[in-house]
């Protein structure tokens, strides 16, 4: 998500691996933290609790959702959609098609479910980046150019 948001805002190409149909389960960070705290405070010693968002989405859906949110809350000056910046890049060798877990145990045993929907979590994430863009630029300047790592 950070690469998509920041590249969009910098008017750069937004890279999507392969055809964008790889599937991931998405969970808003604060929901994840709350789940971790609940497991720490109320979980049984030695038990394993998978934490999931129940939001399986194709990567291209995630990128398009981010672009739609940016179009709504910070439109481009040329009135084009951020979706116009999407470009498909060669997939990594051995890239998993789907990451999935069964998160039913944490709900059954501890009563936890995410508070945020996929849409509300992504919107909050995009908003955070917009409000903290100076920090993002300071962290990445001369250090990380939002490029793919680990391929050399």
Task: Please summarize what this structure is.
With 152 residues, the chain is mainly alpha-helical. It contains six helices and four strands.
How would you characterize the overall build of this protein?
This protein is mostly helical. It has a single domain (2-140), classed as Rossmann fold, CATH 3.40.50.720. It has six helices and four strands. It has helices at residues 2-9, 29-42, 59-73, 104-110, 118-131, 133-140; strands at 14-17, 23-25, 56-58, 86-89. The strands form two sheets. Strands 1-4 form a two-stranded parallel sheet. The radius of gyration is 17 Å and the shape is globular. The protein starts with a helix and ends in a 12-residue tail after the last helix. The mean pLDDT is 93.
What does the secondary structure layout of this molecule look like, with pairings?
Layout: H1 2-9, E1 14-17, E2 23-25, H2 29-42, E3 56-58, H3 59-73, E4 86-89, H4 104-110, H5 118-131, H6 133-140
Parallel strand pairs: 1-4
Antiparallel strand pairs: 2-3
Helix pairs in contact: 3-5
From the structure above, extract its key features.
6 helices; single chain; Rossmann fold; two-stranded parallel sheet; globular; 9% strand; two-stranded antiparallel sheet; mainly alpha; 4 strands; 152 residues
Q: Numbering strands along the chain, what is their spatial order in the largest sheet?
A: 1-4
Biggest sheet architecture: 2 strands, parallel
CATH architecture: 3-Layer(aba) Sandwich
Which CATH class is shown?
Alpha Beta
What is the strand content?
5-15%
Helix content, binned percent: 40-55%
Low-confidence stretches: none
Morphology call: globular
Classify the fold: give the CATH topology. Answer: Rossmann fold
Number of strands: 4
The span between the termini is 22 Å
Q: What is the radius of gyration computed over CA atoms, rounded to a whole number of angstroms?
A: 17 Å
So how many helices? 6
Taken together, the total number of domains comes to: 1
Helix-strand string:
HEEHEHEHHH
Give the rounded overall mean pLDDT.
93
* Global structural class: mainly alpha
CATH superfamily: NAD(P)-binding Rossmann-like Domain
């Amino acid at each position: 998500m950070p690469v998509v948001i920041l590249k969009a805002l910098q008017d750069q190409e937004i890279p999507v691996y392969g055809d964008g149909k790889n599937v991931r389960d998405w969970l808003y960070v604060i929901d994840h933290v709350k789940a971790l705290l609940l497991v720490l405070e109320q979980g049984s010693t030695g038990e394993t609790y998978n934490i999931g968002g129940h939001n399986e989405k194709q990567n291209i859906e995630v990128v398009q959702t981010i672009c739609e949110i940016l179009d709504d809350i910070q439109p481009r000056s040329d009135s084009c959609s951020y979706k116009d910046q999407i470009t498909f890049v060669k997939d990594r060798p051995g890239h998993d098609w789907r990451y999935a877990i069964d998160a039913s145990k944490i709900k059954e045993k501890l009563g936890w479910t995410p508070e945020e929907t996929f849409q509300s979590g992504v919107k909050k994430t995009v908003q955070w980046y917009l409000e903290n863009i100076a920090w993002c630029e300071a962290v990445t300047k001369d250090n990380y150019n939002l490029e793919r790592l680990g391929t050399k």
